Amino acid sequence: MTNILLVGSGAREHAIAKAINRSTIAHQLFCYASHHNPGIIKLTQHYHCGDLKALDLITAYAREQHIDFAIIGPEAPLALGLVDHLQQHNIACIGPTQQLAQIETSKGFARNLLTQHNIPGSPRYRNFTELTGVNAWLAELGDAYVVKADGLMGGKGVKVAGEHLHSHQQALQYCEQLIQHQQPFVIEEKLIGQEFSLLSFVAGNRLVHMPLVQDHKRALVDDQGPNTGGMGCYTDANHLLPFITAAELQQAQTINEATIAALNAEANTTYRGILYGGFMATQHGVKLIEYNARFGDPEAVNLLSLLTSDFIAICQAMLNQQLSASLVQFKQHASVCKYAVPKGYPDNPVKQQTIDISNVTQPENLFYASVDASNNDLTLLGSRAIAVIGIAETIAAAETLAETQIQLIQGPLYHRPDIGTAQLINQRIQHMQSLREVAA
Ligand code: AMP
Ligand code: GLY
């Protein structure tokens, strides 16, 4: 019997729990959660609510439950070094050590690593801790710059010229604000193109890539409104995206592989877990926007719902350095995932109100996130509430399935009806076509 600890309790972790539940390998699942997630509770032997930053308490819980290996869902415990803590007690982990997690936790570290190892795909960038040189660098970049706080900011530390910053003066003000908070920052070239993500299973220097996925960071229809944790994602049946070529896929795979080789060469341990590359397809090829050291939320909902092979077997292979492509198979279907989020999210979300899912006809396609079920009702906690997946032969059919179900959830919620629609996808195809024509 294998005892598995899942750390985290969002839709990503619900997707992980469901994938574990489908495994034919004898196991018991334990969860260290931040709140009562009704979807995960049903799939666990034991469920414990606590602080995901309390590394000692999580480690003590893992020891008490005789955990064989742990899967760390969110970034915060990875950033604090939960893996290092657990490994000290001989508990193996799917997730990198604190040192290796810097690929996500420090944007400056990630950019410097790629530069030092001659890995292609970085925009022009400079790291700063003070205002010296900022003006000159902004002058060189002109109107195409992005200012990024160098740390875990939940997506809120990035300000893009033309969207959040409308003059060099505003950019300087933002830099001054960061300096006041002793926050290092990166100023880099603004990339123009289409974003896509490539997640890979990693064991040492061996990577097995997952289907490409596109997230939607903006809160509102047509990519308007503030940045969020992600309002929904889709994947295509051929595991590419409609606006991405096989050559671009290859470039992204090469960047992920070279980055892991560089990370392992620099560190005193090797990477085990998930590497999430966030890329931009541009007229000058594929560029790296950022790395995450974990599954995306809700990317994991799409990807793990499509996984047909045994997830525990994949985890064990990552831990034993036996990872191979033959262990990892995904259904040749498209998927569309949409998040229902509280009204007012992300800036002023309604909280503590109840929602009703009793009209949903395919509850197996729901993934619970920031909702609490401790007193029978489903109560909104303020972050993204419930993700809904549709899986079908085409993106359009998958979109219809997801949209139909999400509309049946009742409460003070909203979602993006445009995610996965032909109209939005055609805009993306046309955008990439026009960039490629200019390049040619
Ligand atoms: P990050 O936290 O680095 O993923 O950035 C959040 C979002 O800001 C990304 O999803 C992009 O939409 C945008 N962004 C970040 N870096 C760049 C860049 N160099 N050029 C254009 N957009 C960017
Ligand atoms: N959906 C983006 C992320 O998980 O970082």
Provide structural commentary.
This protein is of the alpha+beta class and 440 residues long. It folds into 3 domains: 2-95, 3-Layer(aba) Sandwich (Rossmann fold), CATH 3.40.50; 124-189, Dna Ligase, domain 1 (2-Layer Sandwich), CATH 3.30.1490.20; 194-424, ATP-grasp fold, B domain (D-amino Acid Aminotransferase, Chain A, domain 1, 2-Layer Sandwich), CATH 3.30.470. 33% of the residues lie in helices and 26% in strands. The chain has helices at residues 11-21, 38-41, 55-64, 75-80, 82-88, 98-105, 107-116, 134-141, 168-180, 246-266, 299-306, 311-319, 395-406, 422-439, and strands at residues 2-7, 27-33, 46-49, 69-72, 92-94, 125-128, 145-149, 158-160, 185-189, 194-203, 206-209, 214-215, 218-220, 224-227, 232-235, 272-282, 285-292, 334-342, 354-355, 366-368, 371-372, 378-380, 386-392, 413-414. Bound molecules: adenosine monophosphate (AMP) and glycine. The site of glycine has 7 residues, from loops. Glycine (GLY) is lined by residues 215, 229-230, 292, 296-297, 299.
What keywords describe this structure?
five-stranded parallel β-sheet, binds adenosine monophosphate, 440 residues, 3 domains, Rossmann fold, binds glycine, D-amino Acid Aminotransferase, Chain A, domain 1, Dna Ligase, domain 1, single chain, six-stranded antiparallel β-sheet, 33% helix, alpha+beta
